[in-house]
Design a protein that fits this description.
- The strands form five sheets. An eight-stranded mixed beta sheet has the order 1-2-4-3-5-8-6-7, sandwiched between helices.
- By secondary structure, it is α+β, with helices and mostly antiparallel strands.
- Strand 13 and strand 14 form a beta hairpin.
- It is built from 19 helices and 24 strands.
Length: about 625
């Protein structure tokens, strides 16, 4: 019985190996437009790497080397570093366009950004730009590190546009400026690629149960700190996000497509997506999403490729790479290739062998379709952005937002996000009143009085779609089923006392600048400074109170916290406030004053000194 079982296992393994050996990782069906003539002086990715795309996974540094090579070999491409990851990998963008456009790129970009001003856009010069200047298209790849076909498709896109001289390509390059975020998350990508290349074998493993289809935890989807960067386009918490947000803002494109992968048994997804949608968007957005989606599927129809639209993937939350561009006046789109966990090849649930090469080809095909359609529709797309940037066309009833100043640090945190996204913020220099304003915490309307120093955001600005989408207390929603995010109202998330006004208050203001977003802390001394401190208190509602706690522990302090709010008669302290008792830290007494001063300056928190443990209200 044992011999028979052993024979059966050996036979099964032999059949599996024979089956796997027949897999062609680079079938002719997925050749990259072989009918085109390519400049022999410019190496393809395959020639540069020494293997065909799809035969193994390309390490990030090798792809960077190739892009640097293309920038040197072709006068159609420039490369720029726009940021650095936690693991010190540089982040790059490519600009691909005609030689003529490159020669005047600074002028073209500035002319383009001038269109954000509706008065300029309506002028003769503005209309001339819409009529004659190129459209700006941005394609972003590999924000999820273990969706590797996306970044490899970008390599072929860059080569295709650098090395072909057919008239259609030359015309499209003249009519458009293409920006490529070739790999937004290289830390996550390399985490996946090094494992996948290390786990691969000379015989392709197509069985779904094979080890090569089971990436180990924590996998490569996220960045170094395991954060999903495709939820960070609004907030800019991480350096990768802050880098590509700033780069995006410097171009303000008309078209943006975000390239992803999903489970390998799924067909290819392209726009339009499912409901719910952001109903603040221009009505024309749905038409444009359908136009680009049909262009993608037309290319697939010719090859008999499987795809779907409208069944999944809503763009309601504005912090995805597919929806953030929409609230910046562009046509934002998502593509999802079946492929996560597929390795170099895998047998799907209907017996089809999906190769890595096909996944690359699919994304390459839709990338090229999007690029050419944008160039073809250059003028209409520029006009779409001009209209979307015009605040008089807003669907929101709110004309301004008022945020009361507070000392906890959350206001400045929020303002830093606004300024990073190009929002103009003002500070009132005198007291003022607003009638019929909407109070965010209660949802009620009424007359409110505000003080000098409170913040005012006028909705009459080009990024009004971003402003209303991010600050709306409740976004109108069509149905109750969504991909993941259902609410994100920034004023509530940051616990800010915020009001939405139906009219812009007539009050004198001064601009808030980026230099004013730093946090400054101090130690608040008692009224009787000669008395020995009894305790130091840090109100937990402050933005950086958790950081202060970690540093107190690091210095060896014993820290307590209050389970209920209390007051010394002068200051109210919230539940959770930190209490450092001198009597519980006597071994630190000699350094306590200087430590607290250092802590306040380092973290930006207010530290209150008490000379007694007796409180007027709440616990002693």
């Amino acid at each position: 019985m044992s011999n028979r079982l052993l024979t059966l296992i050996i036979f099964s393994l032999g059949i599996s190996v024979l089956t796997a050996q027949t897999v062609d990782l680079t079938p002719d069906r997925f050749a990259f437009e072989p009918a085109l003539e390519y400049d022999a002086a410019i190496q393809s990715p395959a020639a540069f790497l020494g293997y065909e795309l799809g035969e193994r996974f390309v390490e990030y540094e090798k792809s960077v080397q190739y892009y640097r090579y293309l920038a040197e070999a072709s006068d159609r491409i420039t490369i720029k570093q726009y940021g650095t990851t936690y693991e010190q990998r540089p982040l790059f963008s490519l600009v691909v366009t005609s030689t003529n456009n490159h020669a005047r790129m600074d002028e073209l970009r500035q002319r383009h950004l001038n269109l954000l001003n509706p008065k300029f856009a309506a002028s003769a010069e503005g209309q001339d730009i819409v009529a004659n200047d190129p459209v700006f298209t941005l394609l972003s790849y590999n924000i999820h590190g273990n969706e590797p076909s996306t970044a490899e498709a970008a390599m072929q896109v860059a080569y295709r546009l650098a090395a072909t001289n057919d008239q259609a390509t030359l015309d499209a390059l003249e009519n458009s400026v293409l920006i490529l975020f070739m790999c937004i998350n290289p830390d996550g990508r390399d985490r996946y690629v090094y494992w996948a290349n290390g786990a691969s074998r000379s015989v392709p493993a197509i069985n779904p149960r094979d080890l090569t289809h089971y990436e180990p935890w924590p996998n490569g989807r996220t960045n170094h700190y395991w954060f999903d960067l495709n939820r960070d386009w609004l907030w800019g918490v991480h350096p990768e996000s802050r880098g590509h947000i700033a780069e995006y803002q410097s171009w303000m494109p008309q078209v943006h497509a975000d390239y992803h992968e999903q489970g390998y048994n799924a067909n290819y997804f392209t726009v339009p997506g499912a409901t719910p949608r952001n109903l603040l968007l221009p009505d024309a957005y749905d038409d444009w999403a359908d136009i680009f989606g049909r262009e993608n599927v037309n290319a697939f129809d010719e090859k008999g490729m499987m795809y779907f639209t409208r069944e999944r993937f809503d763009f309601f939350y504005p912090g995805y790479g597919s929806s953030y561009p929409n609230i910046m006046g562009a046509i934002g789109m998502l593509t999802e290739q079946g492929g996560i966990g597929a390795g170099l090849a895998v047998e799907t649930n209907d017996g089809y062998v999906l190769t890595f090469r096909q996944r690359i080809w699919d994304h390459y095909t839709t990338s090229m379709a999007t690029f050419f359609k944008a160039a073809e529709q250059r003028k209409a797309l520029l006009q779409y952005s001009v209209d979307a940037w015009n605040p008089t066309k807003s669907k929101s009833p709110h004309k301004a937002y008022i945020i009361r100043q507070e000392d906890g640090g959350f206001t400045k945190d929020f303002l830093a996000v606004m300024l990073r996204q190009g929002i103009s913020v003002q500070r009132a220099t005198q007291d003022f009143k607003v009638a019929n304003s909407l109070e965010y915490r209660t949802g009620k309307r009424g007359s409110q009085s505000f003080a000098a120093g409170d913040y005012l955001i006028d909705a009459n600005q080009a990024r009004h779609l971003f402003l209303h989408s991010m600050l709306a207390r409740n976004m109108e929603i069509e149905d109750s089923v969504m991909y993941d995010m259902s609410t994100w109202a920034a004023p509530l998330a940051y616990n800010l006392e915020t009001y939405a006004a139906p009219t812009l208050p007539g009050v004198a203001t001064e601009p808030v600048t980026k230099q004013e977003t730093s946090w400054t802390g101090q130690v608040v001394t008692p009224k009787s400074p000669n008395r020995t401190p009894y305790a130091y208190l840090i109100d937990w509602q402050q933005r950086w109170a958790p950081k202060a706690l970690s540093l107190l522990w690091e210095k060896g302090y014993r820290v307590r916290s209050a389970s209920e709010p209390f007051s010394d008669g002068t200051t109210e302290f919230a539940a959770g406030s930190l209490i450092v008792l001198r009597g519980r830290n006597l071994e630190k007494a000699a350094d306590m004053v200087s430590d607290m001063e250092e802590l306040a300056q380092t973290t930006g928190v207010q530290i209150y000194t008490l000379t007694t443990g007796r409180m007027e209200t709440g616990y002693d």
